[in-house]
């Protein structure tokens, strides 16, 4: 897993600092203020991290982040790391693991954005090994992951092809990894066209006004409607 993640980080123009054998810190070597902690643990290690009390996992990870910032990452404070940090937990599981209680706590971790946004990616080693067999060293890993996802999209609902769901979790759980169609996003363009064609004239007008003006700068929607004369008359199409 760590080899794949390292390649994804490298190809995403991020720099990496290895804080210890289980933790990598990634950042952009420019003015882009986004920072990422990658934690590589198995079930036993993550439980040991919270002193064998899985109910403390949420608190433990928040405290873990605070200590890492103080000890290793203080120089990034001036780049707003306190407000722009994401944590990605890559959690290796064994087939025999009883993870019911752990899963409950992992859900709480993801819902808690204190100190960092948090993403949990559980996986089984044999699924990663299956994915690695499909990756060659000749081409960029990010492009290959996209191609593998597209070429095997029919496996999404097949429970016996668990490796594919792990692959899709990469795109969901790694904040800077974006799924891109190798067909120039033609399917997305077609979807956009279909939506646009389904709009009424009134809806097209509203969409145009919102797109061309800074909607977020208005304190409430009534001010926006008044300024751009968007009041709906009795005979207007809704």
At a glance:
With 238 residues, the protein is α/β, with parallel strands linked by helices. It has helices spanning 2-11, 43-49, 57-71, 100-111, 125-133, 141-151, 162-173, 186-198, 201-212, 221-227, and strands at residues 14-20, 23-28, 35-42, 85-93, 117-124. Strands 1-2-3-4-5 form a five-stranded mixed beta sheet, with helices on both faces.
Task: Give your account of this protein's structure.
This protein is of the alpha/beta class. Helix content is 45%, strand content 16%. A five-stranded mixed sheet has the order 1-2-3-4-5, sandwiched between helices. It starts with a helix and ends in an 11-residue tail after the last helix.
Total DSSP E strands:
5
H/E element order: HEEEHHEHEHHHHHH
Q: Please state the oligomeric state of the protein chains shown.
A: single chain
Radius of gyration from CA coordinates: 22 Å
Low-confidence stretches: 184-189, 233-238
Briefly note the structural class of the backbone.
alpha/beta
Mean pLDDT: 85
Strands in their spatial order, largest beta sheet: 1-2-3-4-5
Q: Characterize the largest beta sheet: strand count, sense, and whether it forms a barrel.
A: 5 strands, mixed
Question: Which terms summarize this structure?
Answer:
238 residues, alpha/beta, 5-stranded mixed beta sheet, 45% helix, globular, disordered C terminus
Which secondary structure elements does this structure contain, and how are they paired or packed?
Layout: H1 2-11, E1 14-20, E2 23-28, E3 35-42, H2 43-49, H3 57-71, E4 85-93, H4 100-111, E5 117-124, H5 125-133, H6 141-151, H7 162-173, H8 186-198, H9 201-212, H10 221-227
Parallel strand pairs: 3-4, 4-5
Antiparallel strand pairs: 1-2, 2-3
Helix pairs in contact: 5-7
């Amino acid at each position: 897993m760590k080899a794949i993640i390292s390649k994804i980080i490298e190809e995403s123009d991020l720099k990496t600092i290895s804080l210890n054998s289980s933790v990598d810190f990634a950042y952009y070597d420019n003015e882009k203020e986004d920072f990422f902690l990658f934690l590589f643990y198995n079930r036993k290690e993550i439980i040991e991290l919270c002193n064998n009390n899985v109910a403390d996992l949420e608190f433990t990870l928040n405290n873990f982040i605070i200590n890492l910032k103080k000890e290793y990452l203080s120089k990034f404070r001036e780049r707003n790391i306190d407000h722009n940090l994401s944590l990605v937990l890559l959690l290796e599981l064994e087939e025999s693991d009883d993870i019911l209680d752990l899963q409950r706590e992992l859900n709480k971790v993801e819902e808690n954005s204190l100190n960092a946004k948090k993403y949990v990616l559980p996986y089984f080693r044999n699924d990663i090994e299956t994915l690695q067999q499909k990756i060659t060293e000749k081409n960029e890993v990010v492009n290959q992951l996209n191609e593998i996802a597209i070429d095997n999209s029919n496996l999404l609902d097949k429970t016996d092809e668990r490796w594919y769901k792990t692959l899709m979790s990469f795109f969901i759980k790694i904040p800077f990894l974006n799924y891109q169609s190798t067909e120039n996003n033609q399917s997305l363009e077609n979807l956009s066209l279909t939506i646009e064609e389904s709009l009424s004239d009134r809806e097209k007008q509203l969409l145009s006004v919102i797109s061309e003006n800074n909607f977020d700068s208005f304190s409430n929607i009534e001010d926006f409607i008044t300024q751009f004369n968007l009041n709906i008359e009795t005979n207007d199409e809704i």
